[in-house]
C-alpha cells in the first residue's frame, strides 16, 4: 500500500495481521496497551484525524471498544451504516474504501465476512488511508489476539512456557488461527480440542489436536470458542444439539474442577452459556472473560496509536 507520494506504507500504517510484526513490535504494542490501561494519557494529534468504522458482520464488543478507543484518542469518528450504504446496490468493498478515502478519511476499521478481504487493498497504490482489520471471515482477528495477550500477560507476567488449550469450533474460528500463531511466536505451547469434524489442518503447525479430557489438568489457559452456527451451514445446524455438544466438548463444572488452581478460563465472546461452558463458570473466580472485554479498549487504543505515529499525525511527547 502507498501514501500520496507512492511510497509503500509500513506494516504499522496498516494493522491487518499481527503475524506480520516482529516479536519486538508485538511486545511494544502490548506494552503500550498495558500503559494505557494503567492510566497513560492519549497523545496529542497534529490535526483532526478522521476514522471510519465499517462492520459488514454483526458485532457488539469489537465495534463498541473500537468506538471507545477512538473517542479516548480524540479521533473524529464516522460509523458507516453498511445496511444503508451503496454496498446494498452492489458496490465492491474496494470502491467503498476508495469512496470514504475520497471523502477525507484517514483510517478505516473494517470487519468483513470475506477471509483476507484486505490483501488486494493493501497492495493498491491508489489507496493511502490506513486499514485496520477488525476480523476477516475465518481468517484472523488482530485486536482480539492483542487483548488476549494483555489478559495472559497481566495474569502470569510472561508468555514463555505457558500452556494454552483452544477448545471448540476450530475450523470456523478466526480467533483460534490468529491466537495460535501469535501465542507460538511468543513462546507459548498450544493444544487444541473439539469436534473432529471442526478440526482444521491449518492449525496443525501450531499445536496438536487432542481429547479435551486429556489436556485440562496440564494447561494454564483454557480458551473456549463460540460455536459459530452461522458458518457451519444448514446441514451442520440440522444435526447440532446444544446439550450433546456441551457434554462432549463444553467446559462443564466437573471439567473445570480438573484445571490447575492457577489456570484461567477465557472466551472471545459472545458466550453461549450452557453450550461452550457452564453458566456459572462465565463469572467464576478463574474466569477472565469480562476482563478480556475491558482489555479490548486499551488494545485497540494501542493499535490506532501506532498507526498515528507511523503516519506522523502525533505531536512529539
Automatic annotation (TrEMBL):
<protein>
    <recommendedName>
        <fullName>Aspartate carbamoyltransferase</fullName>
        <ecNumber>2.1.3.2</ecNumber>
    </recommendedName>
</protein>
<feature type="binding site">
    <location>
        <position position="111"/>
    </location>
    <ligand>
        <name>carbamoyl phosphate</name>
    </ligand>
</feature>
<comment type="subunit">
    <text>Heterododecamer (2C3:3R2) of six catalytic PyrB chains organized as two trimers (C3), and six regulatory PyrI chains organized as three dimers (R2).</text>
</comment>
<dbReference type="InterPro" id="IPR006132">
    <property type="entry name" value="Asp/Orn_carbamoyltranf_P-bd"/>
</dbReference>
<feature type="binding site">
    <location>
        <position position="226"/>
    </location>
    <ligand>
        <name>L-aspartate</name>
    </ligand>
</feature>
<feature type="binding site">
    <location>
        <position position="270"/>
    </location>
    <ligand>
        <name>carbamoyl phosphate</name>
    </ligand>
</feature>
<feature type="domain" description="Aspartate/ornithine carbamoyltransferase carbamoyl-P binding">
    <location>
        <begin position="14"/>
        <end position="153"/>
    </location>
</feature>
<dbReference type="Pfam" id="PF02729">
    <property type="entry name" value="OTCace_N"/>
</dbReference>
<feature type="domain" description="Aspartate/ornithine carbamoyltransferase Asp/Orn-binding">
    <location>
        <begin position="160"/>
        <end position="305"/>
    </location>
</feature>
<feature type="binding site">
    <location>
        <position position="89"/>
    </location>
    <ligand>
        <name>L-aspartate</name>
    </ligand>
</feature>
<comment type="pathway">
    <text>Pyrimidine metabolism; UMP biosynthesis via de novo pathway; (S)-dihydroorotate from bicarbonate: step 2/3.</text>
</comment>
<feature type="binding site">
    <location>
        <position position="141"/>
    </location>
    <ligand>
        <name>carbamoyl phosphate</name>
    </ligand>
</feature>
<feature type="binding site">
    <location>
        <position position="61"/>
    </location>
    <ligand>
        <name>carbamoyl phosphate</name>
    </ligand>
</feature>
<feature type="binding site">
    <location>
        <position position="144"/>
    </location>
    <ligand>
        <name>carbamoyl phosphate</name>
    </ligand>
</feature>
<dbReference type="Pfam" id="PF00185">
    <property type="entry name" value="OTCace"/>
</dbReference>
<keyword id="KW-0665">Pyrimidine biosynthesis</keyword>
<feature type="binding site">
    <location>
        <position position="269"/>
    </location>
    <ligand>
        <name>carbamoyl phosphate</name>
    </ligand>
</feature>
<dbReference type="InterPro" id="IPR006130">
    <property type="entry name" value="Asp/Orn_carbamoylTrfase"/>
</dbReference>
<dbReference type="GO" id="GO:0004070">
    <property type="term" value="F:aspartate carbamoyltransferase activity"/>
</dbReference>
<keyword id="KW-0808">Transferase</keyword>
<dbReference type="InterPro" id="IPR006131">
    <property type="entry name" value="Asp_carbamoyltransf_Asp/Orn-bd"/>
</dbReference>
<comment type="similarity">
    <text>Belongs to the aspartate/ornithine carbamoyltransferase superfamily. ATCase family.</text>
</comment>
<dbReference type="InterPro" id="IPR036901">
    <property type="entry name" value="Asp/Orn_carbamoylTrfase_sf"/>
</dbReference>
<comment type="function">
    <text>Catalyzes the condensation of carbamoyl phosphate and aspartate to form carbamoyl aspartate and inorganic phosphate, the committed step in the de novo pyrimidine nucleotide biosynthesis pathway.</text>
</comment>
<feature type="binding site">
    <location>
        <position position="174"/>
    </location>
    <ligand>
        <name>L-aspartate</name>
    </ligand>
</feature>
<dbReference type="InterPro" id="IPR002082">
    <property type="entry name" value="Asp_carbamoyltransf"/>
</dbReference>
<feature type="binding site">
    <location>
        <position position="62"/>
    </location>
    <ligand>
        <name>carbamoyl phosphate</name>
    </ligand>
</feature>
Amino acid at each position: 500500500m502507498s501514501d500520496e507520494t507512492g511510497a509503500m506504507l509500513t506494516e504499522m500504517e496498516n494493522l491487518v495481521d499481527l503475524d506480520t510484526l516482529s516479536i519486538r513490535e508485538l511486545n511494544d504494542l502490548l506494552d503500550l496497551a498495558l500503559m494505557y490501561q494503567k492510566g497513560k494519557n492519549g497523545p496529542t494529534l497534529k490535526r483532526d484525524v478522521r476514522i471510519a468504522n465499517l462492520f459488514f458482520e454483526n458485532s457488539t464488543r469489537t465495534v463498541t471498544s473500537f468506538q471507545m478507543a477512538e473517542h479516548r484518542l480524540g479521533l473524529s469518528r464516522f460509523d458507516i451504516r453498511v445496511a444503508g450504504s451503496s454496498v446494498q446496490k452492489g458496490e465492491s468493498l474496494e470502491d467503498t474504501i476508495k469512496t470514504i478515502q475520497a471523502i477525507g478519511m484517514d483510517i478505516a476499521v473494517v470487519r468483513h465476512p470475506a477471509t483476507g478481504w484486505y490483501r488486494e487493498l493493501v497492495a493498491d497504490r491508489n489507496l493511502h488511508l490506513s486499514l485496520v482489520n477488525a476480523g476477516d471471515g475465518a481468517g484472523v482477528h488482530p485486536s482480539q489476539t492483542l487483548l488476549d495477550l494483555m489478559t495472559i500477560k497481566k495474569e502470569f507476567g510472561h508468555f514463555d512456557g505457558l500452556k494454552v488449550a483452544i477448545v471448540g469450533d476450530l475450523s470456523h474460528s478466526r480467533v483460534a488461527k490468529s491466537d495460535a500463531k501469535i501465542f507460538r511466536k511468543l513462546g507459548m505451547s498450544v493444544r487444541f480440542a473439539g469436534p473432529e469434524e471442526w478440526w482444521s489442518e491449518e492449525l496443525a503447525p501450531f499445536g496438536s489436536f487432542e481429547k479435551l479430557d486429556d489436556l485440562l489438568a496440564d494447561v494454564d489457559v483454557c480458551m473456549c470458542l463460540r460455536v459459530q452456527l452461522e458458518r457451519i451451514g444448514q446441514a451442520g445446524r440440522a444435526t447440532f444439539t446444544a446439550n450433546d455438544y456441551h457434554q462432549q466438548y463444553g467446559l462443564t463444572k466437573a471439567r473445570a474442577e480438573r484445571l490447575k488452581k492457577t489456570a484461567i478460563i477465557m472466551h472471545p465472546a459472545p458466550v453461549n452459556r450452557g453450550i461452550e461452558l457452564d453458566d456459572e463458570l462465565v463469572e467464576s473466580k478463574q474466569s477472565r472473560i469480562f476482563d478480556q472485554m475491558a482489555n479490548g479498549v486499551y488494545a485497540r487504543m494501542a493499535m490506532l496509536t501506532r498507526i498515528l505515529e507511523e503516519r506522523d499525525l502525533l505531536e512529539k511527547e
